[in-house]
Design a protein that fits this description.
The protein is α/β, with parallel strands linked by helices and 549 residues long. It has 16 helices and 17 strands.
């Protein structure tokens, strides 16, 4: 009898120890738990943000982000329906285009530069059925195309930019944003700064009374409007869209497998926004360094537009996260913990992925300043990250800007003149287009690279019927109507400009479901606890039943 009771006591103690171990483990797992946060805004930054939010799922973070355009992102942040926003431009206290002013409460937000890159002109152009991949344009000719002054690809002004190509007599179809877009604001700011007379004349023809910087592109007949960079890229990538050209972030063209225009810079070279070129370009961006200003860390880009470094891409810029600095709306301290951890990840580990995604990593001064901005998030767990620990590929541990210092200079054939490089650009970098001297005669046809059909990859455009187009690594396809220009996602949601207010429709990866270690631990703890409670009584009864009668 005593032996049986002793054994029962040993079993009970062992069970108690296991329960204690289980309970000790459980809190450590929940200590790093995160509540979901939501954001909305820039499609220009979406490929990077989408990649990073998928990365941090391994740490238990869930970041919902809806790429609805910068204007809608700022609006939803002001309405308190999202926890953060992403925008290519700051809040518009005094809009120049007649749109309503935005008036966030003083001290309620902070800007954090998150992506650096270039706004590019992705195009779809063939000569004799062969795709062109090395198109060059001056800034003046880009502006003339998007203001309706130049309407045919064989215009002599375009031929002067492209001496090695016999450009075809095809109608140019400019594809612009239908929604409120930071990309549109940056593009219009550049046109106003560099070619103001062309923009002002166009703005008047388009029926606008206010012709300043605008997030809403004024259109005229012959243009196609699409929502988001995905909508613009999706339309341009269609096989039926031969002759189309639209403005998107560089990342979309790379993923779609389509070329981008090399734009003439102030030094007389045609360039594209490689990570190296963007790093060089943004050395000339004027950053607001007044920490007491509500526009702290925002940019002025006039110096970039006119930089005489031969590597500069004139339409290089930053995009921002708009972070909450007070608890309001749906934002809470617990959400601040998640948002802070995600922001730290984006500024260091995330920047390592930027070049592969079509962006340029943040420079050291903005990374350091961003750490200060992250500390303003209510509920953030402050991380004491040093520059040496950040592992950002832009700079060395001593702060040297490696990308800018090591950026290669353009080839001689990229200089304005009678010779034109054959190398492809953007997502068609490995698809050269043959050139020939004196090919600018539009009655001739130059040999070019692969056919349009060959270039329609799984990540780009579909068949000639406009079946599917996929850009920027977004897993849902886009179907475009050849007659209306309307692009619709495979889920049935239209991307054309309905004019209605788009609310956040988060694109999320669900957290891992199914039976895992946590569930097993919980059941084990419950069973052991039950055993601890029942074992002494059962053992005692068993012993009583064994007594001699």
């Amino acid at each position: 009898m005593m032996l049986v009771l002793r054994r029962a006591r040993v079993v009970s103690i062992a069970a108690l120890c296991l329960v204690i171990v289980a309970l000790a483990i459980a809190p450590s797992a929940s200590a790093d738990s995160y509540v979901p946060v939501s954001g909305a805004g820039s499609t220009w930054s979406f490929p990077a943000l989408d990649n990073w939010r998928r990365d941090v799922q391994q740490y238990g973070m869930r970041i919902d982000y809806a790429p609805v355009g910068s204007s809608q992102g700022r609006r939803q942040f002001l309405d308190g329906t999202v926890d953060f926003a992403a925008s290519d431009i700051p809040f518009q206290f005094h809009p120049e285009d007649g749109s309503p002013p935005e008036n966030p409460a003083s001290g309620s937000y902070a800007y954090m530069p998150i992506t650096a890159g270039g706004t590019v002109f992705m195009y779809n152009l063939t000569i004799g059925g062969q795709r062109v991949t090395n198109l060059r344009l001056s800034g003046e000719n880009v502006t003339k195309i998007f203001t309706g002054v130049i309407t045919s690809w064989n215009d002599p002004a375009l031929a002067a930019d492209n001496p090695g190509l016999a450009l075809p007599a095809k109608t140019i179809v400019p594809v612009v944003r239908s929604d409120g877009s930071g990309s549109t604001a940056q593009f219009s700011a550049w046109m106003i700064s560099q070619h103001g007379d062309l923009w002002n004349a166009y703005c008047g023809r388009a029926g606008r009374s206010a012709c300043g910087v605008t997030s809403y592109y004024p259109t005229v007949p012959g243009m196609i409007s699409q929502a988001g960079d995905l909508g613009v890229a999706g339309y341009v990538a269609q096989n039926y869209a031969d002759g189309a050209i639209g403005y998107v972030n560089y990342s979309y063209a790379i993923t779609a497998g389509f070329p981008v225009v090399k734009v003439l810079n102030a030094s007389g070279y045609y360039t594209e926004p490689t990570p190296d070129n963007v790093a060089v370009s943004l050395l000339q961006a004027q950053i607001n360094t007044d920490a007491s200003s509500e526009d702290y860390l925002t940019q002025k880009l006039e110096g970039v537009y006119t930089d005489t470094d031969s590597r500069t891409y004139p339409l290089s810029s930053y995009s921002y996260l708009i972070l909450p600095t007070v608890v309001q709306g749906q934002f809470s301290l617990d959400k601040g913990k998640t948002l802070g951890a995600f922001s730290y990840y984006a500024m260091c580990q995330g920047q390592q992925e930027s070049p592969a995604l079509g962006y340029s990593p943040m420079p050291i001064n903005l990374v350091q300043a961003s750490f200060d901005q992250i500390r303003k998030i209510p509920g953030v767990v402050v991380q004491n990250i040093t520059i040496q620990d950040c592992h950002n590929p832009t700079f060395s541990p001593d702060g040297t800007n490696l990308l800018a210092d090591n950026a290669p200079f353009p080839a001689d054939c990229d200089k304005q003149g009678p010779v034109q490089c054959e190398t492809g650009t953007g997502g068609a970098r490995n698809q050269p287009t043959a050139t020939s001297a004196g090919a600018g005669d539009p009655t001739q046809e130059a040999a070019a690279g692969p056919t349009a059909g060959d270039n329609a990859t799984a990540a780009a455009a579909g068949g000639a019927d406009g079946s599917t187009a996929q850009a920027a690594g977004v897993t849902s396809a886009t179907v475009c109507d050849a007659d209306t220009g309307e692009c619709v996602s495979a889920s049935g949601a239209g991307t054309g400009g309905s004019g209605g207010q788009a609310r956040a429709a988060p694109r999320t990866l669900a957290a891992t479901r199914g039976w895992g270690g946590t569930q097993t631990l919980m059941v084990l703890a419950a069973l052991l606890t039950l055993l601890l409670l029942l074992a002494p009584g059962l053992t005692s009864r068993f012993a009583e039943s064994r007594k001699p009668q």
